[in-house]
Each structure stands twice: as C-alpha cells, then as structure tokens.
C-alpha cells in the first residue's frame, strides 16, 4: 500500500487536545480552516465543492502519544470514563492507525482554503483526505447508536462574565460557550473543583 501523506493541515483556535469537542458538530460555531499543501492548493482540486454543505475529513490524531502495543479496549467519556468497550465500538482517539473521521460544515472556499464550522480537530492536525458529504448515502437517521443511545451527554451551563465576554467577538464567544458546555474535563475524575 502506498504511504499516505497529509494533503492539508487544519488551522483552529484550539491549540492543544484539552477542550477539543469530543465529536464534530457538537460545537457548530467553532470555525477553522483546511489549508492545503502546495500541490493541492489549486482551484481545480476544489471545483464543484461549492455545491455541497458538508465535508468528510480523514485526518490523523497527531497529539496522541504512541502506545506500547495494541490497545483493544478504551474508556468512552460518555460512559463516565470507567467502563471499557472494544476500540472498534467507540470513536476513541486511541486507534490502531490513529485516523479520525469528521463531518464539518463548509462556510466558504477562498484561495485554496476551506473555512469550516463544527470541527473536532486541533490546530496543526494533518488532513489526509477531503470528501463531500452526500445526504442520500451518508445519513441514516433510523440507525442504532449503541451505547450513545442509552447514555445522554449532559451539557454544562456556561456563563462568561461581561468583562471576559468583551474580549471575544460574537462568533468566538458562541464557540467558546459550546466547547465549555461539552465539559472537556476527563470524565473518570469526579473532582468538582477541577
């Protein structure tokens, strides 16, 4: 098999793993950019993409430490971080090949870059492929969602003091509130003071 290399890198206001939304679409106001590498930063590569609303991104978990072997079970945050499930029954970032898949909304396409909303990628994440989201084959509203159907995610109520809120534009403040509402703290640590 041919070695895969990044075709782009993601640019985001989130510069570390902490605070990254646990899934794409959970912080729909969070804006980032897909910045293509020179061989792909060409108008013809993006021709026709303006007719789509969403993209699939195939990307790499670049901030994960390499593991010492195969990790077959993980602890999903939605289950409190204390229940182990098979890695292939989860969307854990600790995967055999370290690849992520995210659906993001296209905001605009400018100068070989795609501005998107709702991504769960940190700044500098390598992007290996971009594919259009096609509703008639990519959407399955009747599908079962495994453990996610049985355990609701509780959102936090987020209040930003006025003096802090003034430091952000309206869109940035909305994104910050959405990210914090997801409770980025590790779920297996039940320390209310964290």
Characterization of this structure:
By secondary structure, the protein is α+β, with helices and mostly antiparallel strands. It has helices spanning 43-46, 135-138, 147-150, 162-165, 170-181, and strands at residues 8-11, 31-36, 54-60, 73-74, 85-86, 99-110, 113-117, 126-132. The chain is globular. The model has no long low-confidence stretch (mean pLDDT 86).
How much of the polypeptide forms β-strand, as a percent range?
15-25%
Q: Could you tell me the radius of gyration in angstroms?
A: 18 Å
Distance between the termini: 45 Å
Overall geometric form: globular
Q: Sheet with the most strands? A: 6 strands, antiparallel, barrel
Strand order of the largest sheet: 1-2-7-6-3-8
Q: Structural class of the helices, strands and pairings?
A: alpha+beta
| Helix content, binned percent | 10-25%
**Uncertain parts:** none
H and E string: EEHEEEEEEHHHH
Average pLDDT, to the nearest integer? 86
Helices, by number, come to: 5
How many strands appear in the DSSP assignment? 8
Sequence-ordered SSE layout with sheet pairings:
Blueprint: E1 8-11, E2 31-36, H1 43-46, E3 54-60, E4 73-74, E5 85-86, E6 99-110, E7 113-117, E8 126-132, H2 135-138, H3 147-150, H4 162-165, H5 170-181
Antiparallel strand pairs: 1-2, 1-8, 2-7, 3-6, 3-8, 4-5, 6-7
Compose a concise summary of this entry.
This protein is of the alpha+beta class. It is 14% helix and 23% strand. The chain has a six-stranded antiparallel barrel with strand order 1-2-7-6-3-8. A two-stranded antiparallel ribbon has the order 4-5.
């Amino acid at each position: 098999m041919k070695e895969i290399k990044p075709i782009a890198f993601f640019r985001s206001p989130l510069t570390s793993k902490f605070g990254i939304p646990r899934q794409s679409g959970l912080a729909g106001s969070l804006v980032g950019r897909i910045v293509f590498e020179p061989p792909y930063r060409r108008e013809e590569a993006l021709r026709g993409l303006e007719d789509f609303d969403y993209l699939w991104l195939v990307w790499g978990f670049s901030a994960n430490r390499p593991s010492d072997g195969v990790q077959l079970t993980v602890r999903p945050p939605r289950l409190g971080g204390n229940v182990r499930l098979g890695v292939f029954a989860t969307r854990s970032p600790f995967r055999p090949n370290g690849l992520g898949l995210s659906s993001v909304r296209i905001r605009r396409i400018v100068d070989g870059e795609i501005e998107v909303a709702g991504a769960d990628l940190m700044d500098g994440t390598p992007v290996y492929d971009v594919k259009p989201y096609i509703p008639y084959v990519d959407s399955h509203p009747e599908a079962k969602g495994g453990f996610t159907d049985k355990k609701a995610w509780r959102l936090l109520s987020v209040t930003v003091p006025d003096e802090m809120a003034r430091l952000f534009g309206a869109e940035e403040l909305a994104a910050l509130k959405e990210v914090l509402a997801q409770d980025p703290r590790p779920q297996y640590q039940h320390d209310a003071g964290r």
